Amino acid sequence: MSVSLVSVMFVSAGLVALGAFISAWKRQLTGAVSGLPVMFAGAGVAFAGVARFSAASGAPLIGQEMAVMLAIAALAAVGLAIGLAGRESPR
Amino acid sequence: MDSLHAIGFYVSAALAGVGGLGLAFARRHQRRALALALVGLGTAGAYLSLSAGFAAVIALLCYAACALLVARPDYRTVEQAVSAVWRQVGAIGAALLFVALAYAAFRGDFVHATFYGGPFGSLSLARLMFAHDALATEAVAGLVLVSLVGAAAAWRRERPRDDREGRS
User: What is the ipTM of this complex?
Assistant: First the structure.
């Protein structure tokens, strides 16, 4: 059993499509926004896979850097969406 | 890559997929939070299998924070004004996207290279983020700061009484 870039890309495609499905399917806005981290996870896995298997020249860890940035951006997107939705009851 | 890493990668990918499906079909927000945490765990495991240990730690922290945000009991649910037909069209679009991306992955001719980095790579990554790409890192940090400050300001804002009681 081994992992190649093709299998990494397949997993990445599944996560991106799953995130798109969540964003399209959920009726609530905050639920739909929670599909964004799944899409970002898919993109991050693809970047990390390219850095692991196919970075022939240049900075080889740039894919890992992108994965880190995407995880942080996912947190910012979810925080912003839930913050904008507001509280249900006053304090 | 040895068999242990390969098994770890596939198990992590399955975990992330199960978490994503749970996120799509769970009705209560506590379960959605649990599913999002599962996605984060799977993603971090996949990063770890791909010798991206530092990215795995950051992903685990960020997705745990996302799950905690979704698990809050007092956020307001906002219904989208989208009909069921358009939601189904979106779901079919997501399936078509998966088919297209999977086809591109299978038909792609990728370059193979030998990986010389370590399993964690925090030093090399820090050198890359804070020296080579410092401006991009600062831009992302600024974006995150603005979005979190905006979210906190919006969260603190009191809603009108009529809106709270469901009257328009």
Answer: 0.91
Q: Which of B1, B101, B111 sits opposite A13 (nearest CB)?
A: B101
Domains of chain A: 5-85 (1.10.287)
Structure-model confidence comparison of residues B168 and B14, the more confident one:
B14
The beta-carbon neighbor of A78 closest among B49, B69, B105 is: B69
Count of the separate structural domains present in chain B: 2
Distance CA A84, CA B73 (A): 15
Quote the minimal CA–CA distance from A22 to chain B in Å: 5
Are B63 and A73 within 8 A, CB to CB? no
- Look at residue B50 and give its three-state secondary structure: coil
Q: Are the Cβ atoms of A28 and B77 closer than 8 angstroms?
A: yes
Decide if B83 touches A, using CB distance below 8 A: no
Distance from CA of B168 to the nearest CA of A (A): 16
The pLDDT of A43-68, averaged and rounded, is: 84
Tell me, yes or no, if A45 comes closer than 8 A to chain B by beta carbon.
yes
Task: Say if residue B127 is in the same domain as residue B139.
Answer: no
CA distance B96 to B38: 25
Q: What is the dihedral of CA B123, B124, B125, B128, to 10 degrees?
A: 120
What average pLDDT is seen over chain B? 85
Answer whether B52 sits within 8 Å of A76, measured CB to CB: no
Residues B9 and B59 in one domain: yes
B18 CB within 8 Å of a chain A CB = no
Q: Do residues B37 and B26 share a domain?
A: yes
State the residue range of the domain holding B150: 133-168
Q: B110 and B43: one domain? A: yes
**DSSP state for residue B51 in the 8-state scheme:** T
Question: Pick the residue with more confidence: A36 or B79?
Answer: A36
* pLDDT for the residue numbered B122: 80
